[in-house]
Amino acid sequence: MLVLLHGWPQSRRCWDRLIPLAADTHRVIAFDLPGIGDSAGVRTDGTKHRIAAVLHQALANLGVTDAVLVGHDIGGMIAYDYVHHYDDASRAVILDAVIPGVDPWNRILANLRLWHFAFHATPDLPESLVSGREHAYFRHFFDPLTHPGHPIPAEQQRVYAKAYATPAALTSGFDMYRAFAADSDHNRSLDACATPLLYLRGEHGMRMTTTSLDAYREGLSAAGNEDLTVGLVPDAVHYLPEENPDGTWQAITRFLGA
C-alpha cells in the first residue's frame, strides 16, 4: 500500500501523474492533508506530529498495516515524523523536503529565497493578503520552482488554489509553517529510526541551492536514520511527481525492490 502525502500549496491532485504508474503494482491512497481540500472538516495545530497522528488513525480505520509513505515537501515532514513513532509503515520516501530541526535546517532558515517561511508563520497577516488571491500568490511558488520543460499547467494551479480557497483551508496551510519551531524541537528529541528511508531531491533544483545532497545525507544520518538512501531525480526542481513522474517512480521502485 502506497500512501501519498502532498506539500504546500498543493492537494492530493499533485499525484495525478504518478498514480497511474504505481497502480499497476500497488494499491494507492492519496490524502488531502487536514484542513485542506476534501479534508476541510479535519483541523490540527499544524504540527507534523499531530498530523501524523491523524494519518495513523485514518490508516487504522482502513485496516492498513504495511504502508509505504511517500511525502512531498510538508508531506515529507509528516512521513518523517510518522516512521519515528509508528510501526505500521514499512518504508518511507521523502521528496524534496527539509526536515525541521535536522541539519541543514539552520542553513535553510538563513536562505533568503525561503523568505516565505517567516511570512507564513506571521499570525493573520498572510491570510489577509492572500485570501481571494490564492492563484496569483501560489503561482510565484510554482513557476520558479519547476523545470522549464515541465511547467505545472495553469489549470492545475487553479485546482490547487481552489483547495485553499476558504479561510479555514488557507489558515490550515499557513499553520503548517507556524508549527515549524515546535516541529524542530520535537524532531531533535526523537530516538533513532530503523525504518528504511529514501530521500530524493530534484537534480535541477540542487543546482540552485547553497546546500548539497551530502549535507542532507549527513544530517539525516546524524539524526538517527539508520537505513538511509539518497538520490536525485533528473529534469526536476522541486515538484518531482509532476515535473518527472517517470523518473520519480523509477527511483521509488528501485528503493522498494532493494
TrEMBL record:
Q: Which residues form the AB hydrolase-1 domain?
A: 2-245
- Write down what this protein is called: Alpha/beta hydrolase
Looking at the Swiss-Prot or TrEMBL record, what is one Pfam family this protein matches?
A: Abhydrolase_1
Its Gene Ontology molecular function terms? hydrolase activity
User: Any keyword Iron-sulfur?
Assistant: no
**Record keywords, A-Z:** Hydrolase
